[in-house]
Amino acid sequence: MADMWPVKVYELVGARWTDRGTALCTGVYDEALDQAAIVAKSEIGDVEILRSQVRGFDAYQRQQETLIVWAEPDGTDFALSFQDVEGCGEMWDFILEVQRHFRAKDGDDSSLSPLASGSGRSQSRLTVTSIIASRRLPEPALGIIGDVEAAIKVIAKTLHGRARICEYILNEDYIKSLIDVMKQAEDLESLTDLHALYSIMHTILSMNDHGIIDYILHEDVFLGVVGILEYDPEFPTHKASYRDFVKNSLKSTQVIEIKDDTVQRKIRQIYQLQYLKDVVLARVLDESTSDVLNTFILFNQSDINNYTTQDATFLADLLRPFTLSEGSGFGAGPIPATNPTAPSNPNMFNTISLSDERQREQAPSPPPSSIHPSLVLPRLDSTTRLSASSGDLGQPATSYDFQVKVESQVAT
């Protein structure tokens, strides 16, 4: 195999695929040593990034059309992501041919069938059938996510199967394992696996199990769940940004401190449930799943209302700014009158006779700087009248036996 094909080389470090660089990849066979190897050389400097010996019984997996994944004897996992489908196909044929050669040499060519089957669909059908028969899910991994998706959909059709699979998912922390696979698929840019993960998560949530809904609301799970749901196969060329929104927008400020951790958690859960219902699953949400999410929201709201109306400490903190008490500052007592000489009559209107007004006109006026604009009254004579209730000034008067009504706040 002499052709060189552009690839990206990945190595699994911990739970994440690490990009080791872009290279040109080819298969090399040494007749003298009867050995074959996968060689990836850097495009700059002709430096070998990877050299992996091909063995007859190593487990190689071809995923999608451009990805080959395998594990070295020391346990290190590698992946080659090809730029071209043709390059991936040629490398895959090289691996199969080498393995066929080694197995024929050892007299065990019959074991070639799983790899020589080409499409591998018979192996996939066997995997789906075994999952359905056992009512157990295999450990999620790249390459079998499609089989897990198909098996879950079949099992979830029956009530008994749905109950068993939900119990298994909760007991085995299966959703966390799916989140780990999602991170690997993102590192490898494996859209096929990411779309299959979306379908699995949608199927799991559509089973409407209360235990699963409560489980995904945990702080370390919710972000991963909405991350899986960013890759909707109905929009293969687009990716949502749910995780960015949740991380940057899920911030709250407590005006009145809530000291109960359980109530604080329920407030966050209401936000998560509403975001899941109204945004993440809005396009695909069925009526039964919507009812389950609404039930969770109502129960949490009820618990919060009970806390705010029954907790004495919270109520005291809530009402403290409005409590009238001795001291200074807001809410520390009645506000003093602006005019110390104003009458203390609490009635809305005060009645002043015309004779009182004439006496006031004859009294010496205070300095102009001390007169408040609201204390200046208009001059009255026998041809004018003032009505505070109607606001009409300058209407003819017929006699002097009327009284002028002035609002108490004008008097003060």
Automatic annotation (TrEMBL):
GO MF, any single term: protein phosphatase activator activity
rRNA-binding as UniProt keyword: no
Subcellular location: Nucleus
Ranges of residues in domain Serine/threonine-protein phosphatase 4 regulatory subunit 3-like central: 148-323
Keywords of the record: Nucleus
Transmembrane segments: none
GO biological process, one term: DNA damage response
Pfam families: EVH1_PP4R3, PP4R3
Domain PP4R3 EVH1-like: 7-101
Biased composition (Low complexity): 337-347
Primary location group: nucleus
GO cellular component, one term: protein phosphatase 4 complex
Polar residues: bias regions: 381-400
Name of the featured protein: Serine/threonine-protein phosphatase 4 regulatory subunit 3-like central domain-containing protein
Species: Hydnum rufescens UP504
